[in-house]
Amino acid sequence: MEAFYSMDEGSVTLLVHPSEAEATLVRMQLFLEEKQERGNSVPDFPENFFMKFSASKKMIPLVFGFRNADFAISFIEEFIHSTDSDYENAEDLKHFLYKYKVEYSISSTIQ
Fold it and tell me: From which domain of life does this come (predicted)?
């Protein structure tokens, strides 16, 4: 999984590789249900989204707009925490989180 942030739009994009789609699907669905149970705001995914998502043979871009960017960031943090330490993109995701938090705090300070 890869992650990108658009400062102009305030959106977070997750690119999920087909080889990890099913595992990511399970993690995201459990994470979503946990957040819902706690009363947190969660994205409104279309019906059968997770089924289509897990069966994809192409790179899957998941774009979380400004209202759901926090959900995406929290999911990335949980994803890193729950993956094996040998997950090849873990360091890239950690670096993304660091950059996101720095850029977000700078843009919040400027506004």
Answer: Bacteria
